[in-house]
Amino acid sequence: MGTERIVVITGASDGIGAAAARALHARGDRVVVVGRNPAKTEAVARELDAEFHVADYADLAQVRSLAAALDRLPRIDVLANNAGAAMLHRRITVDGFEATLQVNHLAPFLLTSLLLPKLIASKAVVIQTSSIASRLIGGIDLDDLQSERHYAVLKAYGRAKLAQNMFTRELARRYGAQGLLAAAFHPGIVGSNFGADSSRLIRLAYHSPLKRLITVTPEQGADQLVWLATSPPYFDGHSGEYYENRLIVGTAARDRDLARRMWERSAELVGAA
């Protein structure tokens, strides 16, 4: 029997993160559960007899503490950057960044950067839970990542997810030769607690009677995460791509120069090498 795989899933206290944790645990993986809500995170971990950590991505000090704790693991075979949120109003975090950008992109960028030596040593798969919103915003302006000129929740969320896709692309370019694999995916509109504090349109989709008509279950939303986490051979020649319904979809993230500059700008913002 091979070495037990260790899978770290953020945003695993609810929704597709919890569903993916259950599915991967059932396959025999050692799952490490990360969430923002202490009670919910511990409940999922107890159900799976799993290790858990609590971190609020709106505070990068907590992300650094999380990275230090995870770095004590013997290996990390899969890092699923699944945590995310969309803020109805522009809000600045304790770190001085626009919250939607920080929670969806800067925090997972920092966590992954801090764990890179362990991820490379483990020849890990790094998975980003992205969104189709990344394809609907018409690009990204590196000079206005903080949405200072105009804030609209869907645009800010799409921008953060596109930044995440670019990070995925650049991660594969920089470290693929060392065995690191990366992918991003859109889970569908998942019927979970996501969007409760977001725009009227998002709340209508997630928290009204329309929910049953246009959303998928957390288990259905977790399908691609589990598939990407358990199908490394598929990545041969495809690392760094963005997926919808298990199919590669081209996005602005394929602009290599823009992805490189996005990486450099993100590293500058969070103080990562």
Task: Offer a concise description of the structure.
InterPro entries: SDR_fam. This protein is of the alpha/beta class and 273 residues long.
Describe this entry's structure for a reader.
The protein is of the alpha/beta class and 273 residues long. It has a single domain (6-270), classed as Rossmann fold (3-Layer(aba) Sandwich). Helix content is 44%, strand content 13%. It is built from nine helices and eight strands. Strands 3-2-1-4-5-6-7-8 form an eight-stranded mixed beta sheet, with helices on both faces. This is SDR family NAD(P)-dependent oxidoreductase. Keywords: Oxidoreductase. InterPro entries: SDR_fam.
List its traits:
44% helix; alpha/beta; Rossmann fold; 9 helices; 13% strand; SDR family NAD(P)-dependent oxidoreductase; 8-stranded mixed beta sheet; 273 residues
H-E string: EHEHEHEHEHEHHHEEH
By CATH, the topology is: Rossmann fold
How many helices? The count is 9
Reported CATH architecture: 3-Layer(aba) Sandwich
Q: What radius of gyration results from the CA coordinates?
A: 17 Å
Gross morphology? globular
Largest sheet data = 8 strands, mixed
